[in-house]
Write a structure and sequence with these properties.
4 helices; 222 residues; 6-stranded mixed barrel; 3 domains; RNA Polymerase Alpha Subunit, Chain A, domain 2; Ribosomal Protein L25, Chain P; alpha+beta
């Protein structure tokens, strides 16, 4: 199991900025039967573990001599720089199935795309599953080789599942499909339609501007 070390955290509120400057990521561990506990972990260690585990793989979190089986949950990011600034660690019971979302990994090559110029459309990029914590997959594979003809589709029921894993979705939901390539006439029609929409929008904007100008003139006159 992937392991991550953390330490108890007493600094809270706006003062956590000082922790981040020292290379620590503030967080909290909580869960069923576990009281909420503020913690901090090395930012470098967290990023390494998060790349491996994501939010669907079990992590062993060690805090001050105590170990928790956790899922990384609700990671908050800096609005401009995009790096993590806070993370929740949800402690789970190993004997109780849980639901979480796992990413889909598209593998193989579609014959319809390669040989017939089809356009691959990925309808889903992640999917909800249910399993015991130790059985949760890091990702699920979608085999694009099943898309061998134009208009062919891959459905939820076509996804191969590891033992003990159940997908929480309709079996006939579309995961990916191949559309026929658009002809030059279809592309031209779409461009013309877009131009007509833009023209209508411009007319509406002109009318709105004229109305606002008239209202301003009225206010000045009064």
């Amino acid at each position: 199991m992937i392991e991550l070390n953390a330490q108890p955290r007493t600094i809270t509120g706006s003062q956590v900025k000082s922790l981040r400057k020292k290379g620590f990521l503030p967080g909290v561990v909580y869960g069923e039967g576990v009281d909420s506990r503020p913690i901090a972990t090395s930012f470098i260690d967290f990023e390494k573990v998060f790349r491996q585990a994501g939010e669907s793989t079990l992590v062993m979190l060690a805090v001050d001599g105590k170990k928790y089986n956790v899922l990384i949950h609700d990671v908050a990011y800096h609005a401009l720089k995009g790096h993590p600034i806070h993370a929740d660690f949800y402690a789970v019971r190993m004997d109780k199935a849980i639901r979480t979302t796992v990413p889909l990994e598209f593998i193989g090559e579609s014959g319809a795309v390669k040989n017939e110029g089809g356009v691959l459309v990925k309808v889903m990029h992640e999917i909800e599953v249910e399993a015991l914590p130790q059985d949760l997959p890091h990702e699920l594979h979608v085999n694009l080789e099943l898309l061998f003809a134009l208009a062919s589709k891959t459905l939820v029921k076509d996804i191969a599942l590891p033992k003990g894993v159940k997908i929480i979705a309709d079996a006939d939901e579309i995961v990916a499909l191949v559309e026929a390539p658009r002809s030059e006439e279809e592309i031209a029609a779409l461009e013309q339609q877009a131009g007509e929409v833009a023209e209508v929008k411009t007319e509406q904007e002109e009318k709105r501007a004229a109305k606002e100008a008239a209202e301003k003139e009225k206010e000045v006159a009064e």
